[in-house]
Design goal:
Elements (H helix, E strand, L loop, with lengths): L2 H22 L11 H13 L7 H10 E2 L2 E2 L1 H6 L1 H12 L8 H21 L18 E4 L2 E4 H13 L28 H13 L5 E4 L2 E4 L2 H4 L1 H5 L10 H6 L4 H9 L6 E3 L76 H11 L3 H15 L5 H38 L1 H9 L2 H13 L1 H9 L5 H8 L6 H36 L2 H40 L10
Parallel strand pairs: 6-7
Antiparallel strand pairs: 1-2, 3-4, 5-6
Helix pairs in contact: 1-21, 5-6, 6-7, 13-14, 13-15, 14-15, 15-16, 15-19, 15-20, 17-18, 17-21, 18-20, 18-21, 20-21
Length: about 550
């Protein structure tokens, strides 16, 4: 295979690999109406329902068990009988007879109440995502139907009621979720309550602010952006920023309109730690700070000062990556994804979660140190997939591996040159590469990174002895190491999904897709490695022909 054809093959392989990773990291579940009997009953309610559903019991529970938008789980534990009594009424509700607003309020309240009960049934969790299948597998009874939380939200509320303000009313037991107010939703005041919730959420600088000429928005708008601009939903706007402007603080609204409704936008990271109020035993996992904007509908909390990027959004992302509900495996920035009960997966994720925002930093620093000390990086790369999921595991490992490779390169070039020279002397392949680098530069760096013939750790030091420029070395290493990084991280993410399902968390379809993704990724990585090896031999052969061959008789690379 000629070098140009090899390069075209490498480009195609990289494109396939990155496309696969992107598809696995897709965001939130789609809004798709449930059919069957429950779908017919919801449609009957919308078409002709007139009855009401009293929520007094749930309202009293919220008044006693919430503080500043956070939940006192100890209080709810002490009042579990009242919570169960309310949920028994939800289970027996006559859905088709209810007026549409009454049913919508009932479903919102049921989602929030079942979320709290789920946390009570799993004491000690630091994040709702530690509970296997929490959104997709655990079922709850509503109006005589067994429904998951995802089905309530994405199969009933979103597709049938088409109100984007729902995102500011549903609470996922996480600190970046919309805070829980100290009252229940009721059909006769639902529109005013939702309007107040939207205003409070969008005036909170943790969720909406302007920083350095950029509009910073809650991850909700990344995951559910179409809900806010769909003309079939009410309310909606032409763009997401214009929707925000209709509720935001005056200076934010002015900034948005000053950019014709299309300012630069970035999204916050989502904090999945448990929304436990200070004083609750669960609060030790998540801190004690309150949720502003929780007590009053119109409260413009934290109007001054910018809160730090706190988080990642509501539904399970077992995704890594990145989105909620039936997500892709676990978002590292979002904290630990659901882990196997009490197993090594949970322990690793628990350790990372215990470090809070320093978790990714600590993991990355350990990776850099391991690289410099010749510790094989494959185990740490797989571990990143377990701890952080596909997307953030790839980001953390990619940055850390390049940083470690750069550190080893600099050590070899400036600090331990003579010692590294002695290490390399016994490796004929590296001497051949040295000659080729002198003629082909960064291309040889990239090809050796893609080829499995060269050990990663030794190569880092060996390149410090060559004439390749540091910038070219770092850039070529980063790009060429991405396929292997994605493959190993994906192995970890898929392994975590298998461990979770085997521990009783369900979600085997999602797990099977993860495993198939790993198999496809490994297949592409093997093909890329073979193409790179052939291309490398061609480049090295050309270098030998021009330079008289390597010392000692010319072993092929």
């Amino acid at each position: 295979m000629t070098a140009p054809r090899a390069r075209r093959g490498l480009a195609l392989g990289l494109a396939v690999l990155l496309a696969g990773a992107a598809s696995a990291a897709c965001g939130a579940p789609e809004s798709a109406a449930l059919g069957g009997e429950v779908g017919r009953e919801v449609r009957a309610s919308i078409d002709s329902g007139t009855a009401s559903f009293g929520e007094d019991g749930w309202g009293a529970l919220l008044a006693g068990g919430t503080r500043d938008g956070l939940v006192d789980y100890d209080w709810f534990r002490a009042h579990r009988s009242e919570l169960d009594a309310y949920l028994e009424r939800v289970a027996g509700a006559d859905l088709p007879s209810l007026a549409p607003a009454q049913l919508e309020a009932l479903l919102i309240d049921a989602y929030n109440a079942y979320t709290i009960r789920t946390i009570l049934e799993h004491p000690g969790v630091g994040s709702i995502r530690d509970i296997d299948g929490v959104w997709t597998d655990l079922e709850h009874e509503v109006g005589g139907h067994r429904l998951t939380l995802d089905q309530i939200e994405h199969g009933l509320l979103r597709p049938y009621f088409r109100d984007p303000r729902l995102h500011f009313a549903l609470n996922c037991a996480s600190r970046s979720c919309a805070p829980l107010p100290p009252w229940a939703y009721a059909g006769d005041s639902l529109d005013a309550r939702l309007e107040g919730r939207a205003r409070a959420f969008l005036r909170d600088t943790a969720n909406v602010r302007v920083e350095g000429g950029t509009l910073v928005l809650s991850k909700y708008f990344d995951w559910y952006g179409g809900d806010f601009t769909n003309p079939e939903w009410t309310p909606h706007s032409e763009t997401i920023p214009l929707f925000v402007a209709s509720y935001a603080r005056p200076e934010v609204a002015e900034f948005i309109r000053g950019h014709d409704g299309r300012p630069p936008v970035r999204f916050t990271r989502y904090d999945w730690s448990l929304n436990a109020a200070s004083g609750s035993r669960a609060a030790g996992h998540s801190g004690a700070a309150g949720h502003s904007g929780a007590a009053a509908d119109s409260g413009a909390a934290r109007d001054s000062g910018a809160a730090g990027d706190s988080g990642t959004a509501r539904d399970s992302a077992a995704a890594a990556a990145s989105g909620p509900g039936a997500g892709d495996g676990a978002s590292a920035s979002a904290g630990p994804a659901s882990g196997a009960r009490g197993g090594w997966v949970a322990r690793l994720r628990g350790w990372v979660a215990s470090l809070g925002p320093l978790g990714p930093v600590a993991y990355g620093a350990a990776y850099v140190l391991a690289t410099v000390l010749f510790v094989p990086g494959s185990a740490l790369t797989v571990g990143a997939g377990i701890a952080f999921g596909l997307v953030w595991g790839t980001v953390i490992t990619s940055v850390a591996s390049v940083a470690g490779a750069a550190a080893a390169f600099l050590v070899a070039r400036y600090l331990l040159r003579d010692r590294v020279q002695r290490w390399v002397e016994g490796h004929d392949r590296l001497r051949i590469v040295d000659r080729a680098v002198g003629q082909q530069g960064w291309k040889i760096v990239a090809l050796t990174r893609l080829s499995p013939l060269f050990p990663f750790n030794l190569l880092n030091y060996a390149y410090g002895l060559t004439d390749v420029g540091f910038r070219h070395y770092v850039l070529a290493s980063w790009v060429a190491m991405l396929p292997g990084t994605i493959a190993y991280v994906w192995i970890g993410a898929a392994g975590a999904a298998v461990a979770s399902s085997a521990a009783g968390g369900g979600g085997w379809l999602h797990t099977a897709l993860q495993v198939l993704g790993v198999a496809a990724t490994l297949g592409v990585a093997v093909v890329i490695g073979r193409i790179a090896t052939r291309a490398l031999r061609a480049e090295v052969g050309a270098a030998e022909a021009q330079g008289g061959g390597p010392p000692g008789g010319g072993e092929e690379a």
